[in-house]
Amino acid sequence: MAFQAGGQRSQPRPVPESPEARAYLQDYAMLLEAVPFPSVVFDHRWDVVLANSAFEALFRGVGPHPTAMPGDNFLRFVLFHPDAGAVLGEHESRWCLPMLAHFAAAVESHGHDHGLQAIRREIAQDPIMDAAYRQGLPHWIRAAGPGAVEHDGAVRPLLHPDPRWGGECRVVGETPKTLQAMGYSKLTLVLREARRPAPVVRSPRRTRRTTGHLSVVPARPD
Questions:
Q1: How far apart are CA 120 and CA 103, in angstroms?
Q2: Phi-psi region of 118 (alpha: psi -120 to 50; beta: other; left: phi over 0)
């Protein structure tokens, strides 16, 4: 499995210092590759640590970007990549706002992190996104409820390049304790098969009815 999804990284991928942790990640990468659905492991900045081939396939049509490739930093991709809406359906309401909420929580926990502060500066450069972050986000959270913010269990629109998959996915957050101890999280996008149109059933030819009578009501004999 490639540790990199979506082209050359603009920043080195975060790697733990411990040999035991690196060995665990190598084995976990093999496990991740066996998952048929797009799956990604990331740190508190949403810098991608591992991503499987299904994740790469989902974003294979995404154009290049210097800082917001999905295999580099998934948060940056959702917020800043111009092609994000071509993959993430209802992009602003169903993906951007929940990610902004998670970003706000990360800033609250890791306020002095340089990577998070760089993302905050980029948000500030976009007047609409900055207003949504500073003013609209609290109102949206109160109106939509905490369930709208959570990733785990959410069903969100997704536009997969493979026509076999339908227009939505279930987001599943499942992070083993060892990954949690490293400061990592894992998300899997469980795809749903595209619905096939129901076959057209042609009714058998019937004899012509007398005007004004239903088919289940016989006409009175003459």
A1: 9
A2: alpha
